[in-house]
């Protein structure tokens, strides 16, 4: 490591374009705030189309050089980046907690999770194999080779400000692509810190460019990338409506797309499940980041014969969770990202109670702790007509639905336009095989609440998007296949 950065050193407020930190062309800035207090942390560049175009220009100039850099040399750069991330894990974890709100232990955990993708794709950079196609005619050879798709535009969400951008940038750079990117307006500081370390690791000027933009200016900035034929791929994690917009608006230049979109994850507990394990699995999957994750269980279906027992076990565990700012070392649930998030949670809980749900624990805003806190909540008696049944709550709320038999549970779990993650608990091996095949989702957790791994493909089906991140399959989304045929060899 050539330099040790303290927290104030990692906070950068300008765009990173062509290897330089530059303000927005307009000179405008917008505030990034601490969700725990509402205090302003920094004023960052508020970019527009001019800045987006400058980033693309830089990426276009850098692409031929980075594309032709030996895979081993690209891997070396990524390994150095990985080492720098690990060397600054505590500082990056504190920065994540500061601008996103999650407890420090989770913030540091996210750093390690994001770093795992950098290490994985550093190794995969040297494993981009093609094929020799068996000869079909004498005097003619045929082969298929994989090449970098070109400039990649990466657009990332606020809930995992380091992991999501690392999961997109690392495979792009490993494949030989250059990158333009825009983090979410709520959490740009972590992304800029990550890019600072990438530059320190030796990513050349122009190969990696990042701009920030306010909620008002982001659409126009991204639109420039959608319209620019030099940008050959969009990778996006966020809501389904925005994903559909990106797909429509990029159709004019037929870009390659990876879209990891909204979810409405079911969590099924059968009567033969280990209930203690099921409760622990639900706690891990639901309350990570305060429920603000796309794979968070949104609908919990419990078989009638074990419903009351499971509800009692769960309510006791949830009631014991400590809600506090990230500065509290014992915090387990931090603030929600902003006031809009809390208002949506309140709206869902109020609607559920109006339609007959019973509050087993929580169900209220914790205004005494700060502006964006909501109590971890368990609701019994949830029904399909409630808003939380068909919309992601994206918060620490567990609605419990009752079911009678396996067929009913599968039908209810699949009754959604989304298909990102699903979970179920059972000790019947035949049921495990049967149910895992019938559930309509890209990710299936079987007696397990923690699904994500850099070695596994992450992505959904139906309106949860397409494309995969992580694993050897994730690298393919940044490559195109070229068929080469050579004749007159006989």
From TrEMBL:
A Pfam match: Aldedh
What does the record list as GO biological process? gamma-aminobutyric acid catabolic process
Q: Which UniProt keywords apply?
A: Oxidoreductase
Query: What molecular function terms (GO) are annotated for this protein?
Result: succinate-semialdehyde dehydrogenase (NAD+) activity
Which residue positions are annotated as catalytic?
A: 260
Q: Which PANTHER family did the record assign?
A: SUCCINATE-SEMIALDEHYDE DEHYDROGENASE, MITOCHONDRIAL (PTHR43353:SF5)
User: What is the name of this protein?
Assistant: Succinate-semialdehyde dehydrogenase (NAD(P)(+))
Q: Which organism is it from?
A: Caballeronia arvi
């Amino acid at each position: 490591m050539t330099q040790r950065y303290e927290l104030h050193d990692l906070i950068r407020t300008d765009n990173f374009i062509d290897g330089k930190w530059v303000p927005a062309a307009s000179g405008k800035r917008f505030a990034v705030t601490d969700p725990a207090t509402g205090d302003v942390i920094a004023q960052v560049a508020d970019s527009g189309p001019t800045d987006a175009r400058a980033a693309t220009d830089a990426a276009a100039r850098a692409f031929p050089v980075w594309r032709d850099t030996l895979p081993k040399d690209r891997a070396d750069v990524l390994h150095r980046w990985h080492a720098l991330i690990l060397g600054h894990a505590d500082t990056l974890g504190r920065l994540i907690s500061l601008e996103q709100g999650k407890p420090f232990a989770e913030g540091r955990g996210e750093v390690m999770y994001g770093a795992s993708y950098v290490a994985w794709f550093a190794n995969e950079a040297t494993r981009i194999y093609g094929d020799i196609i068996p000869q079909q005619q004498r005097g003619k050879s045929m082969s298929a080779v994989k090449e970098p798709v070109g400039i990649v535009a990466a657009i990332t969400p606020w809930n995992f400000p380091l992991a999501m951008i690392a999961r997109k940038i690392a495979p792009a750079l490993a494949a030989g692509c250059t990158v333009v990117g825009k983090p979410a307006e709520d959490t740009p500081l972590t992304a800029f810190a990550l890019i600072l370390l990438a530059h320190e690791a030796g990513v050349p000027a122009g190969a990696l460019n990042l701009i920030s933009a306010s909620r008002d200016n982001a659409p126009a900035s991204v639109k420039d990338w959608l319209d620019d034929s030099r940008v050959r791929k969009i990778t996006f994690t966020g809501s389904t409506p925005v994903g559909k917009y990106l797909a429509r608006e990029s159709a004019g230049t037929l870009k390659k797309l990876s879209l990891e979109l909204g979810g409405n994850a079911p969590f099924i507990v059968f009567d033969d499940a280990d209930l203690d394990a099921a409760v622990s699995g639900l706690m891990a999957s639901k309350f990570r980041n305060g429920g603000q994750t796309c794979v968070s269980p949104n609908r919990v279906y419990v078989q009638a014969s074990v419903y009351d027992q499971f509800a009692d076990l769960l309510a006791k565990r949830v009631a014991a969770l400590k809600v506090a700012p990230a500065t509290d070392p014992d915090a387990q649930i931090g603030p929600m990202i902003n006031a809009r998030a809390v208002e949506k949670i309140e709206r869902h809980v109020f609607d559920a109670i109006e339609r007959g749900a019973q509050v087993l624990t929580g169900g209220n805003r914790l205004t005494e702790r700060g502006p964006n806190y909501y109590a971890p909540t368990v609701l019994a008696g949830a029904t399909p007509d409630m808003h939380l049944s068909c919309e992601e709550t994206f918060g620490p709320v567990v609605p419990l639905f009752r079911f009678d038999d396996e067929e009913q549970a599968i039908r209810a779990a699949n009754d959604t336009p989304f298909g990102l993650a699903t979970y179920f608990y059972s000790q019947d091996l035949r049921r495990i095989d049967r149910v895992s095949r019938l559930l309509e989702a890209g990710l299936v957790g079987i007696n397990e609440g923690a699904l994500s791994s850099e070695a596994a493909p992450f992505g959904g089906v139906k309106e949860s998007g397409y494309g995969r991140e992580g694993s050897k399959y994730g690298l393919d989304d940044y490559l195109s296949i070229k068929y080469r045929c050579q004749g007159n060899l006989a």
